[in-house]
Amino acid sequence: MDRRGFGASGDGAGYAIEREFEDVAAVVEAAAARTGGPVGLWGHSYGAGCAMGGTTLTNNVHHLVLYEPGLGIPYPAGSIEAIEEAVAAGDMETAILAVLVGIMEMTHEEVDSLRSSPRWPTLLAGTPTVPRECRAEDSWVYRPGQFDAITAPTLLLAGSHSPSVLTKATHEAAAAIPDARIRVLQGHGHLATRTDPAMVATVLRQFILP
Is the pTM of this model over 0.70? Predict the structure, then answer.
């Protein structure tokens, strides 16, 4: 799905991550109505956090897979303000690189690979949403029982080479979801969907399909 402010989706005033949770639940309900039963739900990074929240609002998820949700990761002092300033100045590349390099700790080689990919223009187009998403992650606090409503079998994916803040956030998410388990993707970081998409697809099939 195209989240708020991305692709074919419009945006709106009064942003809160809870609206993203509701959006995910609405799409799940529509997909379930079309297919005639519950669906598998997958989310990556900020989208994984949205998938977590969305699953608490619907009973139509039969399996949930979350790749390093960022809820609760701490942003260095002044970093979000710097991203906001870059966006306000129309410098989307500086803004997105502040996240990819400064927070996700991507190497120059990884950034160059991403910059040369068809996805780069899409990332830049969605960059105006980045500051609010950073603030939502930075200010997130898990409350006891917040995700107890998730009954679907849940798998969290974590890259063995991912930044420690993402590893910690992944473990916090797993602890918040009943009976969730973690699978470490050896030799990969936060973007195994790019570095080895076939492997990620195999992991998803093994977990979701009967």
Answer: yes
